[in-house]
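ARCHIVE CARD
CATEGORY: sequence design from structure
SOURCE FIELD: tokenized fold
FIELD CONTENT:
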């Protein structure tokens, strides 16, 4: 039974650190709430927009294409994150063929996503 005790000891350390983290955050927020001055006025409750008084509703329409550009950036960032470790493993003896096939499968999935974006006209500047 000593193996089970070691196993649960690892989880108890993680739980203790998580509990201490939550306690630290709660104490910090509580101290901030107790120590800050709170004097609400009509001007303080207005929405702050870079020093300009807010005008109109609060609703603004944004174009979806900006989100698509952000999504494409995330695709390329994930691609880069997976390519660097792959390059280090590929250089080790005995891993060449398997990692090469895995990377071509991964790049194939990315190519399908990029082809879909290209087909939809997302990659064209207007």
């Amino acid at each position: 039974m000593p193996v089970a005790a070691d196993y649960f000891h690892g989880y108890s350390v993680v739980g203790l650190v998580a509990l201490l983290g939550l306690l630290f955050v709660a104490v910090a927020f509580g101290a901030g709430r107790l120590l800050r001055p709170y004097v609400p006025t009509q001007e303080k409750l207005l929405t702050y927009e870079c020093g300009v008084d807010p005008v109109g509703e609060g609703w603004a329409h944004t174009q979806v294409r900006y989100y698509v550009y952000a999504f494409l950036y995330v695709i390329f960032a994930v691609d880069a994150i997976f390519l660097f470790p792959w390059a280090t493993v590929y250089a080790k003896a005995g891993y060449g063929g398997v990692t090469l096939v895995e990377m071509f499968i991964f790049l194939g999935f990315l190519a399908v996503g990029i082809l879909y974006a290209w087909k939809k006209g997302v990659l064209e500047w207007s």
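CARD ANNOTATION: The two ends are 68 Å apart (CA to CA). The chain has a mean pLDDT of 81.
SHELF: design records, drawer C
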